[in-house]
Structure formats: structure tokens, C-alpha cells
């Protein structure tokens, strides 16, 4: 079996960038009916025009590419699945291996603000005893973990792949952290491999199998969370239903139109982040376009969207029926402004819950929105487990 790990450098071709520019210049803009200033019907036309003008005339992919390439990146293949990952060695006496898991529509680059401080805490005024060896894989089918041509790769399967990746890197036991699908991967690791997982830190919680949260699980002070989750499932999950059932159909449009892809991805940043003071108080135009470019250049909208399709009920998943479902120690940093906050009472049954905190600033993309808060909570959780 070929278990080589090879250094990797991002290098878009001039032809790719020239083709992108031509497509942007030829954008055929849709009509916008009524007042969509608050993005009620989806991506806002005026903002997408503004962002596209910036994309054409100001955004510098080569500068952003160089920033990405400053991080040590690698590629390997596990069970026929190409895997791209960042691997930053910690600066401390005994760094703890930590695998950070992103979600959709994230990329590895969403972790950039927390990688350095977690690997080198002394470099930002922290304690070197808190150092981690930080591993940030791109999920299968996302950006440079491509092309993914075989079906069946979901977050359950990804957890198994990550154990093999950590074996390949020489780590027997390791910590894990994640949000969105990344939280479900981290939970699956703690479910299937409690002997290997030091602990799982989650900033988004969702069941990987029954039992599911019930309305009676919400305490009075959590009722607003239950209402928010219900609203999201009624009004905000159209993208999910499409990607769970027919991901191939929108791929024809989103693999062909860069502005179409941008609208699909940027709208999720607006809808899911804590943008109460405005989208660009959280994400700069460069931040938004970096994400779009990583999906565009790798042509991975369809394989990333298929992650939902492969997670449908009935696909291979849980490995036991014990309670708690996740037996490895779990720490939760719940963001009240996230899209689906869940009740603590359910979490205490579902996880081997060792830590619970609630944050009232920041949202779904917390490593980008409030990196300092994330860093502090991750360090505190694992410090308690390791001392």
C-alpha cells in the first residue's frame, strides 16, 4: 500500500485565472424582485455586484496563495481518497496532537487564525505547556482533497480515514476539535475510537445517531435556542435539502459560473455568522473570496455538496448503541448566535460531557469570527484533561 506523504504547494495556473476573469466579465446578472436588502430571498444583488467588482479589480489571488503556502501542507492517499492537510508542529516540551475539522462551506483556511497560537502559545504570550501539534485536513472532496470519484464518503467514513491519517503521522492518541460537519467528525471519533481520542472539543453540536434532542430538553432560558433551531429547519435549510437529495443538479451551474458559486457560498456566511453589525465586520472581501477561490480552482462544489448526500440515513455509521453515544471526554463551546443551538440537558446524556460554556458573540464560523475565544476554550478544556 502506498502510504507516502508528500509536500504540497498551492499553484493556480495563469490559464485558470485568465478563464476566471473572462467569466466574471461576462456575468449575466439576475433580476432582483422587491427589496432584498436584508438578504431575505438569498444573496443580495447589490452586494454581489460590489464583491465581483472587487474580485476583478482589487483582489490579488497570488498574494493570498502565498499566505496559504506559508503553512506546511501535504497530500497523501488513504483508501483511495486523496487527502490534503496542514501539519504544524507545536513549540513546547510535549505538544498534544490536535486534529481540527472544518465543515461546509468552509475550507482548511478558516482555521488560519487559531493554528499558530495553538501550535506556539508562547509566541502569543501563552504557556508553552499548552502547545499542540496541529493537523488541519481538508475534508474528502473539499478543495485539495480531490478529485473524489468514489461514493460513500461521509463524516462517519471520514473519522475512520482520520484515524489512519494519524497512524500515518505516528500519533497513537490525539485530541480533536470541530464545528459543523467537523463537529460531527470529532464526535464520531469520540464515539468509535474513545481509546484513541484524548477529548473532543465541539463548537457546534448535532446528533450523529439517536437519541435526538426533544422540545422537553430545552430549559426555559434555552427556549430561544429551540425557536431558532425550528426557524432554521423551516426557513434556512433549503440548501441542505438540495444537497442531500440532488447535489449534481446545481453543480452544473455552480461549476460553470464563479459569481453563482460565490452567491451560494457567501450567502451562508451572511446567514450563519454573527453579522449583527454587518457582514464585513466579520469577514473581509478577501476572506469571502478566498473561500470561493478555493472551491472554484479545485472544482469541488459538487464533491463537497455530496457530503450531505452521503450522510443520508441508512449509510454506514455508528458502531455501538451504548450511552453516552460519545464516550471520549467532550467539551462544548455553544454559540448562542449559531444556527441551531442545542440544549445542555440533551448534551449531558449524549456526550461524556466534561465542559460546557456558552458564548454570546460569534456564530457558526467561530474560528474566523472569534479566534481568541476559541483558542482560550480549547486550551482550557484540554489542559484539564492532560493535567
From TrEMBL:
<keyword id="KW-0378">Hydrolase</keyword>
<comment type="similarity">
    <text>Belongs to the peptidase S33 family.</text>
</comment>
<keyword id="KW-0058">Aromatic hydrocarbons catabolism</keyword>
<dbReference type="InterPro" id="IPR016292">
    <property type="entry name" value="Epoxide_hydrolase"/>
</dbReference>
<feature type="domain" description="Epoxide hydrolase N-terminal">
    <location>
        <begin position="5"/>
        <end position="110"/>
    </location>
</feature>
<dbReference type="GO" id="GO:0097176">
    <property type="term" value="P:epoxide metabolic process"/>
</dbReference>
<dbReference type="Pfam" id="PF06441">
    <property type="entry name" value="EHN"/>
</dbReference>
<protein>
    <submittedName>
        <fullName>Epoxide hydrolase</fullName>
    </submittedName>
</protein>
<feature type="active site" description="Nucleophile">
    <location>
        <position position="180"/>
    </location>
</feature>
<feature type="active site" description="Proton donor">
    <location>
        <position position="308"/>
    </location>
</feature>
<feature type="active site" description="Proton acceptor">
    <location>
        <position position="364"/>
    </location>
</feature>
<dbReference type="InterPro" id="IPR000639">
    <property type="entry name" value="Epox_hydrolase-like"/>
</dbReference>
<dbReference type="InterPro" id="IPR029058">
    <property type="entry name" value="AB_hydrolase_fold"/>
</dbReference>
<dbReference type="InterPro" id="IPR010497">
    <property type="entry name" value="Epoxide_hydro_N"/>
</dbReference>
<dbReference type="GO" id="GO:0004301">
    <property type="term" value="F:epoxide hydrolase activity"/>
</dbReference>
Amino acid at each position: 500500500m502506498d502510504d507516502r506523504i508528500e509536500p504540497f504547494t498551492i499553484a493556480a495556473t495563469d490559464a485558470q485565472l485568465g478563464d476566471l476573469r473572462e467569466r466574471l466579465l461576462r456575468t449575466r446578472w439576475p433580476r432582483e424582485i422587491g427589496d432584498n436588502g436584508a438578504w431575505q430571498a438569498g444573496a443580495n444583488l447589490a452586494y454581489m455586484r460590489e464583491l465581483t467588482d472587487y474580485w476583478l479589480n482589487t483582489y490579488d489571488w497570488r498574494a493570498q496563495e502565498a499566505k496559504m503556502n506559508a503553512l506546511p501542507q501535504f497530500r497523501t492517499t488513504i483508501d483511495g481518497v486523496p487527502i490534503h492537510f496542514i501539519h504544524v508542529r507545536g513549540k513546547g516540551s510535549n505538544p498534544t496532537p490536535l486534529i481540527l475539522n472544518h465543515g461546509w462551506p468552509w475550507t482548511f483556511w478558516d482555521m488560519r487564525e487559531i493554528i499558530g497560537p495553538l501550535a506556539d502559545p508562547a509566541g502569543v504570550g501563552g504557556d508553552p505547556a499548552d502547545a499542540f501539534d496541529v493537523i488541519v485536513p481538508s475534508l474528502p472532496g473539499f478543495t485539495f482533497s480531490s478529485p473524489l470519484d468514489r461514493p460513500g464518503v461521509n463524516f462517519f467514513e471520514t473519522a475512520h480515514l482520520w484515524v489512519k491519517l494519524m497512524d500515518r503521522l505516528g500519533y497513537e492518541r490525539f485530541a480533536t476539535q470541530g464545528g459543523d460537519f467537523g463537529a460531527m467528525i470529532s464526535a464520531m471519533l469520540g464515539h468509535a475510537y474513545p481509546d484513541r481520542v484524548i477529548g473532543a472539543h465541539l463548537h457546534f453540536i448535532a446528533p450523529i445517531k439517536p437519541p435526538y434532542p426533544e422540545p422537553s430538553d430545552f430549559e426555559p432560558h434555552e427556549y430561544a435556542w429551540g425557536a431558532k433551531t425550528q426557524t432554521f429547519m423551516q426557513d434556512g435549510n433549503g440548501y441542505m435539502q438540495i444537497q442531500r437529495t440532488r447535489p449534481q443538479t446545481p453543480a452544473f451551474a455552480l461549476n460553470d459560473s464563479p459569481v453563482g458559486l460565490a452567491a451560494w457560498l457567501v450567502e451562508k456566511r451572511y446567514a450563519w455568522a454573527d453579522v449583527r453589525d454587518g457582514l464585513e465586520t466579520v469577514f473581509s472581501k478577501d476572506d469571502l473570496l478566498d473561500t470561493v477561490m478555493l472551491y472554484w480552482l479545485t472544482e469541488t462544489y459538487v464533491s463537497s455538496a455530496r457530503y450531505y448526500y452521503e450522510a443520508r440515513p441508512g449509510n454506514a455509521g455508528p458502531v455501538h448503541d451504548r450511552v453516552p453515544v460519545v464516550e471520549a471526554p467532550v467539551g462544548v463551546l455553544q454559540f448562542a448566535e449559531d444556527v441551531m443551538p442545542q440544549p445542555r440537558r440533551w448534551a449531558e446524556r449524549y456526550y461524556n460531557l466534561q465542559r460546557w460554556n456558552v458564548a454570546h458573540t460569534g456564530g457558526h464560523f467561530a474560528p474566523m469570527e472569534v479566534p481568541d475565544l476559541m483558542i482560550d476554550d480549547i486550551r482550557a478544556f484540554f489542559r484539564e484533561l492532560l493535567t
